[in-house]
Design brief:
Length: about 300
């Protein structure tokens, strides 16, 4: 099959491209290089530098494509609060641009990388797709708006659209950005470097951390499954709730170093709890996460040259 990936050089995009190439598929992609690193891509992937709102370029790249993966997005919650217009332009406008290019080139399936962040604060820890989203940031709003556009336009133009709400993906070679570094690689860097591990609030807030291979498996399955599972969103997570402080303690155990915590009680920890209900993932895509958090962290130590021992 022939696949096109927006945001192909990003953390999830590059891992997905590697998986698809290994499975014998042809992969093309576009990336503006604002966050991605092409060095992580196999040489078989054709990558075009460009903006996801550049429709003429999308037309050229989508010729003969079977499925589009739309992963390109701005992803920092904190940054989105400062620059909501930019997030709307890239995340929402880019989604509409991708759909228009698909209509014009005849591509009939879109797999969209949405986010568990759009659930926001909920009365239950078990976050299932039937809950009313309560987005707490412009980033989360942009993902929810994109889901609505994808559903409405998909129905109007007869495009099979699948929105995967990916929770906290992690794994080897995850970029550490200065503005909002992901928790796991940031903790590895702080603990191995002998520095203090900064905890926002009490550190007892929980998240659902899903290993990159499990995230990619769900994306690939959504693209290749013969029976279209419908337009309802699908959670992609581990189904396990882990507190932020537990993450640091586990990394300490695996590295043989004792974390030194620096608590910032005045800093907002965000939503208190997040854990994905995976019922629909299992029934619609027949996917069950395989990598435990301990095993995933151990793989980072073995495979990530920044932290390998």
């Amino acid at each position: 099959m022939r696949f096109f990936i927006t945001g192909v050089a990003g953390f999830i995009g590059s891992a997905l491209a590697n998986r698809l190439i290994q499975d014998g598929h042809e992969v093309l992609g576009i990336d503006d290089r604002s966050a991605g690193r092409e060095v992580t891509l196999p040489p078989e992937v054709f990558v075009e530098r460009g903006d996801v709102n550049d429709i003429p370029k999308l037309w050229t790249l989508m010729q003969g494509v079977d499925v589009v993966f739309h992963l390109a997005a701005r992803v920092s919650v904190q940054e989105s609060v400062k620059y909501p217009r930019d997030y709307n332009h890239v995340n929402v406008g880019g989604t509409v641009s991708v759909l228009e290019a698909m209509r014009d080139t005849g591509v009939k399936r879109l797999v969209f990388s949405s986010s568990g962040a759009l659930y926001g604060k909920q009365p239950t820890k078990n976050l299932h797709e039937g809950l009313k989203p309560e987005p707490q940031s412009p980033y989360a709003v942009s993902k929810l708006a994109s889901e609505h556009y994808i559903r409405a336009i998909g129905e109007a133009w007869n495009i099979e659209t699948i929105s995967l709400r990916i929770f906290n993906a992690y794994g080897p070679n995850q970029p550490v950005t200065a503005a909002h570094p992901p928790v796991i690689p940031q903790f590895f860097r702080q603990i191995l470097g002998g520095g203090s591990v900064v905890m926002h609030g009490s550190g007892k807030q929980t998240r659902d951390f899903v290993y990159i291979d499990d995230s990619v498996a769900a994306l690939a399955r959504a693209a290749t499954i013969e029976v279209y599972p419908g337009r309802e969103p699908i959670n992609v997570g581990s189904g396990v709730e882990t507190s932020i402080i537990e993450i640091a303690e586990l990394i300490g155990q695996l590295t043989g170093k004792t974390p030194q915590f620096l608590f910032n009680p005045e800093s907002s920890p965000g939503v208190p709890h997040m854990c994905a209900d995976l019922t629909r993932l299992k029934t619609a895509l027949d996917i069950v996460p395989k990598v435990t958090l301990r095993d995933g962290l151990q793989r980072i130590l073995q495979e990530d040259l920044r932290f390998a021992r």
